[in-house]
Every structure is written in C-alpha cells, then in structure tokens.
Amino acid sequence: MRLIDLPFDPAREMAAFNAAHAAAGGIVSFMGQVRGQGAELLELRHYAPLTLPGMSALAQVCAARWQLDGLLMLHRTGRLSPGEPIVLVAAAAAHRRQAFAAADYAMDHLKSESWFWKRERRAGQWHWIEPRADDYGGLARWV
Amino acid sequence: MTARLIFLGRLEDAAGGAERDVTPGPLEAVLAALAPDLAVALLGERVRMALNGVLIAERGGIVLREGDELAFLPPVSGG
Hints:
The structure holds 2 protein chains of 2 kinds. By secondary structure, chain A is of the alpha+beta class. Helix content of chain A is 38%, strand content 34%. Chain A has one domain: Aldehyde Oxidoreductase, domain 3. In chain A, α2 (48-65) packs antiparallel against α3 and α3 (96-113) packs across α4 (133-140). The A-B interface holds A 32, 45, 47, 49-50, 53, 75, 86-87, 107, 110-119, 128-132, 135 and B 6, 8-10, 13, 50, 52-53, 55, 69, 71, 73-79.
C-alpha cells in the first residue's frame, strides 16, 4: 500500500507483485488512468494524516474478509496528464473469486471513502470535481 | 500562540489558501474572526472536520489549543 507523487509504471509494479506471489492460484488487477478527453491536467490532493491510515484500514478489511495471498494498492497524488495511471489495485489468492472480489471491494472503497480531492484544468481554469452518485452506488453493493 | 486551519478541496478556493494560522480558542470564536462567507462554507452540512488527524464526530465544544491542526474536509471526489 503506497501513495506516490510521481508517475509509476503499472507493468513493472505488476511484474514485482506477480513475482512475489508465484504460488498464488490467480491474480486480479485493476488500473485506473486519467481519461483522454476533456481536462488538460488532473490534480489529486489528499490529507496525509487521514489518507494513509484510511488506506491501511481498507487493506486490513480486505485481508479479513477474503483469503488473500497478497494485496497491492497504489495511488497517485499530485498533477497528472491524460493517460497517466492514477490507481493500481491487485489481489492474489488461491482462487479467482476471492481475488476478483477483494480487488473490486478495494476499488469501490478507494473511490468513495478515501480522502482524495480532485480538480481538473480545462481551458486554463481549475475546477474541483464533486463526487458522483454512482461512486456511492458502488459501496451499496457491499452492505 | 497559533493553531492551524487546513482547507481541503474547494474550501481552499473559498479560503484563498490551503492553510491559515489562527489565534487558539473556542471554534465559534475562531470562525467568527473569518470572513462570513468562508465561515458559512466551513460549517456546511457535508463538511467534516478532523482535529490533529482524528475525525470529529460531534462538532460542539471544540476548543483549539496552541499547535492544534483542524482540517475541514468537503465530500471527497474519489480515486
């Protein structure tokens, strides 16, 4: 689980994670990236005293809820250009359903409960992004 | 003798900066010393607060002491 303020290479991260879990039955990963249309630049702000403990707590819930061999959560902060990776989540488990579910759960909760604020620059102007209703809809699936 | 207010997300625009040092004291007094528009934005129903990195469940009775950091957290916009 890491927060990083510089671009990362998802393929390299996944290669390291796969190598660390060579005995797992399967690995599921999700990578989110900055959409290609619209904004010139995206900025992700966070509040460190809450962000890191929040991500640790999420990892602990995933570990308690599913039988995992390993879980990876990487999240960017700072300024990103279209096409740059924002988030990478990977779950390794003996069986695929555990890995799919844990990665899905981690993404839903990162989207809606983590302490990140986004703003976009369009035509030279910065705009804060408000939460979308379907980010919360994702959470309701897990109640 | 200062305490610090931290403004996240769009509250940073309302405050004109990401943080501000204020004179310690009861939260009502701290807010009363700010521009009225900013105080109203900070007290918004969906704005949560964290005192020294811990989320506050109950807003009443907050008193800022020297060195305290109070963060105002609008709804997050996701990963």
